[in-house]
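subagent[fold] <- orchestrator: predict structure for attached chain, return tokens only, no commentary.
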Amino acid sequence: MRLDKMSPDQRARFQAHCADQNARSKFPLPIICTACEKPLADPGASSRQQQLPAGAVVIPFFAYFCSQVCADTFEHDYGIQFKRAATGKVSYE
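subagent[fold] -> orchestrator:
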């Protein structure tokens, strides 16, 4: 339903639903390695801004890996191939 076609009651219920969804998403899930499930970062921690560890491999909108070895293992296990830099490492930069 379009927002401009909502009745005041429907709009109030929709806004309450959106507020509830926003409250639930304030606690993001920790980032773990897709291959070995090693924790990489916990964005929900109250400490200063979290950084990924050196050597972590990020595939945008797909996965996080703790190392190049885990990315290679994932490729081999699932028969897929990630984009690689001239050095042979997985790279989406």
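orchestrator: received. Logging for downstream: The first helix runs from residue 8 to 24. The helical segments are 8-24, 68-78.
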